[in-house]
Amino acid sequence: MGYKLLEYVVMENKKRILTGDRPTGRLHIGHLLGSINNRVRLQEEYEEFVIVANIQALSDNFDNPGKVRENIEELLCDYYACGLDFNKANVFIQSEVPEIHEIFIYLSNFATVQQIQHNPTIKTEMAQKGINLSTPLGFFFYPIHQTADILCVNADLVPVGKDQVPMVESTRDLARKFNKTYKVNLLHEPDSLVGTEVNVPGIDGAEKMGKSLNNAIYLSDSEEELRKKVFKVYTDPNRIHATDPGKVEGNVAFMYHDLFNSNTEEVEKMKDMYRKGNIKDMEVKEKLFLVMNEKLTPIRERRLEAEKMKGELLARAIESSKKVSNIARGVADSMKEAMLLNFKN
Ligand code: ATP
Ligand code: MG
């Protein structure tokens, strides 16, 4: 009994993490390095909440709900494959926590149209996805909705990829404004935690690998698919012959080596040889395939295991959504009280 009680007290003292992904496709190596590795590492130290952001996914896929629905189970399988423990991390589904929408509407008074338009994440996504001012409002609302995701459990830490850091900044801003306006100390100002200094680039050389950008190496790719993609990776377009001096900066093959190859001595040697025109692109890529395949094989294998448990994983996520909904109800009620919207005694 005493042991159990102690465990409970420790749980309550844990700081909270909120993080997650849009079910818009299978996860890729950018997710793994940008955010998932941190989630797996911290799932015991923190009380962790992982959101499957299916409503946010609709903001640019509203005409294709089947795609979003199908990808929920895919995402859960990817989580399991990467080592997220569904008994430790609370993996939940955004649409099962309606309190998020309520919190969203309260927060929307604290963000201006100008702030959303100037948000660096939004500006980049608008350019990448061809979004303009005739795009449905849902897209422009999503930053505030994402803030509501984070604040619905009053998270302290948000593991995200580099592209999402401005979103966490804006969450801090909205939380601060809410607290100041209503003279309360209610909403936490969360910190972001990035896994890589820069976004993991796409195989095509784009600044960010993205599941909607058709330039990704997926965690579920077979060994053969991985090999094919590695050999297509963008290198130095001006290097025609193996004897031409090549550029290492902006060369995705070397960027991936930096991220996956723990033998830094070997990587530095290859870079030096590449600059001098002493190594073929093919050799750099063959080594890259071997190191990446070594890291991705156990994930691929666990993913096959997960596919047999899809139903179980989904049931678990729905169960966790109830717990999150209770926590979020508490936050929403406190917000209502601060805004003089409570009519209960
Ligand atoms: P979409 O193209 O549909 O927006 P996405 O690949 O950007 O998909 P999200 O679900 O939007 O994936 O992002 C989930 C998390 O993964 C976020 O924290 C994001 O910062 C991170 N992430 C996504 N792509 C990368 C990347 N290339 N490098 C580092 N982190 C990334
Ligand atoms: Mg994205």
Quick summary of this structure?
It is built from 14 helices and 5 strands.
Q: What does this protein look like?
A:
- The chain is mainly alpha-helical.
- The protein folds into two domains: 11-201 and 310-338, HUPs (Rossmann fold, 3-Layer(aba) Sandwich), CATH 3.40.50; 211-303, Tyrosyl-Transfer RNA Synthetase, CATH 1.10.240.
- It is 56% helix and 7% strand.
- It is built from 14 helices and five strands.
- It has helices spanning 2-13, 29-42, 54-58, 65-82, 99-107, 113-118, 120-129, 137-151, 165-181, 223-232, 252-260, 264-276, 281-307, 310-338, and strands at residues 16-21, 47-52, 90-93, 157-160, 191-194.
- Strands 1-2-3 form a three-stranded parallel β-sheet. Strands 4-5 form a two-stranded parallel sheet.
- Strand 1, helix 2 (29-42) and strand 2 form a beta-alpha-beta unit.
- Helix 5 (99-107) packs across helix 14 (310-338).
- The longest helix has 29 residues, at 310-338.
- It is globular and about 80 Å long.
- The protein starts with a helix and ends in a 7-residue tail after the last helix.
- Mean pLDDT is 93; it is low at 1-11.
- Domains, number: 2
Report the CATH topology name of the largest domain. Answer: Rossmann fold
Overall outline: globular
Number of helices: 14
CATH class division of the largest domain: Alpha Beta
In the CATH hierarchy, what is the architecture of the largest domain at level 2? 3-Layer(aba) Sandwich
Whole-number average pLDDT? Answer: 93
Number of strands: 5
